[in-house]
Every structure is written in structure tokens, then in C-alpha cells.
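Honest question from a wet-lab person: if I give you the sequences of every part of a complex, can you actually get the arrangement of the whole thing, not just the pieces? Trying it with mine:
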Amino acid sequence: MNDNLIIRGIEFRSRLWVGTGKYKNFDETRMAIEASGADVVTVAVRRVNIIDRKSENLLDYIDPGKYKILPNTAGCYTVEDALRYARLAREAGISDLIKLEVIGDEKTLFPDTLGLLKATEILAKEGFIVLPYTNDDPIMAKRLEGAGAAAIMPLGAPIGSGLGIRNPYNLKIILETVKLPIIVDAGVGTASDAAIAMELGCDAVLINTAIAGAKDPIAMAGAMKHAVIAGRLAYKAGRIPKKLYATASTPFEGML
Amino acid sequence: MDRIPSGMRFFVFMKLIVNGEFFEASNAGTITDLLNEINIAPGQVAVEVNLSIIRKADHSTFRLHEGDKVEIVNFVGGG
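Yes, you can. This is the full assembly:
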């Protein structure tokens, strides 16, 4: 049976989404993406280098025909900047997808959720498919849903921290109360973190630093691929309840 | 005023600010001309002139003017 994630009519082959930042070079980026099995790759919008025109382009290595390009508004600290970057991304790219970030603070990179809500509302009205990067805050997730977000991307932990899923209970509440797909964005450090997010019932996981920063990014990309598949299967299979005491697996019957 | 001889017009520089840097375009009539001069393929870039996005379809007709602030962006690695 087809268990593919669908957002606003767009079907996604993989529940692992990957970023393209922090790799040593474009070859490593390409190989890691391939090993991850992802079909969504995030990118950022930045000035073209007009002095050194020999510098290569990321999209020479990532075929937009093969992967869904998800631009972000990383580095934007105001609503105005986020709107500007989102609109430029749509013009530079080929779709209405935008991973919306309005950052509140340099040290934590936590989202400025008030600005995020405002920007989500404006961009949704402009026809964007808005995927806002937000806190693991169930109330804000609901508000973003009301503002026209297409999915919610709560953090597991601060961007690049590798601290894992710090508040699984909040994520559970978001999963229960928000009708949109929930994609954990940020915080995953290793394969078990990705599996935990999926076991909770999250619809997908977006990972960048945990893969790009690993000693062997290509091997870690493969590990994340399997973790996300395993976590999803476990969620669908339905785990046993946690109990304090033992229950024998082997029958007493027939004992001497 | 005397008309500039047509053979001279390619030597008239237009001062622009491109991606935050002063840029003297030797042949910038339109955005397409500017992209050609900088050797940028128009495919996956977005262009903004004085904070307004100029759609790709309009690159060949949108005329630049002295002092215009032009931003040319593309996609780079990001999370």
C-alpha cells in the first residue's frame, strides 16, 4: 500500500528531507543526497558571485527534475526580509514551496514566532505553499495552521545542536491537535533521533547538520534513510505499551 | 544637444550597484544585457531592481537606469 506523504497535492517519495548546507563540496552534497534517498532538498537564496563567475552552481549537482527544491528563508530576522527572500526564491525556482524561517535570536536560532505567523499569513495569501519552521509549541502550531500553513515544521532542538527530540510530549500534542503534516526540522543528531521522531507519528524529518557534519556524511545519510523508514514502520505497526514489570514471553505450560 | 554617434554608444558606461558593489556596465540596456555581460545564465536566478522583482519574462524588455540597485540571487547550500 502506498504510504507516501502528500502535501497540497504534491506526493513525496521519501519521509526523509535533507539540507544542502555545510558539505565539503558539491560532489559530497550530491552523494549524500543520493544515499539518503530523499526527494526533497532544501536550499538557501543568496547573491550570485558576480566577480568569480567560474564558481559552480549547486543546481548543476542537484537535478531539479529529480528532486523537489525547497528554498528556505534562513538568516531572515524580520518579516519583511523573510517575505523578500520567499518571493525571490519563487522567482528563481520552479515551485511555490517555501520553508519559512523568521529567526528571533542569533545564538539559539529559535524562531520569532510572532513574525513567523505574520509572514505565513501573507505568503499563504500570495499562493505560497508555506512550511513554517517553528517551536515545539502546540498553540503556535495551531495558529500557523489557521494562518494557512501547508505543514508545520517544529524543531526537535536548536538548529545544528544535535540534541535530538527534546520534547516528545509537545510533539505528541501537536500531532494530536494539528491536522496538517508535521515535519520535524532541526535538532536530529543521529539515526535514533530520526527514528524517535517518526515513531511519535511525525510525517517526515528534515536533516542537514547531522548528515553533513558526520565523519562520513554519505554513510550517515544511509543510516538516516533506514532510521526514518524503521521509525515510520514502527509507528504504523503500533508499539507495545510501556510497563514497569516483566511479562514472560515464554509460556509456563509444559514446564516440569 | 549633439546626438551621440551610434558607433559610440557601446562605450557609454552605466553606473549601477549590482549585489551591493559598484558596477560599470558597458552595455546594460536591459536586464538580459546585464546578465550576458556578467555571464550569468538566466535560468535559475532571480533579479530585483530597486527592491522590485523583475520576472524572467520581462528581463529582455526591462530597461536599467543609471544608479539602479540590482540584486541577482540564486540557490546555494542551506538547511
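Two things worth pointing out. Chain B touches chain A at residues 18-21, 23, 38-40, 44-48, 51, 53, 55-56, 71-79 (CB under 8 Å). The longest strand of chain B covers residues 69-77.
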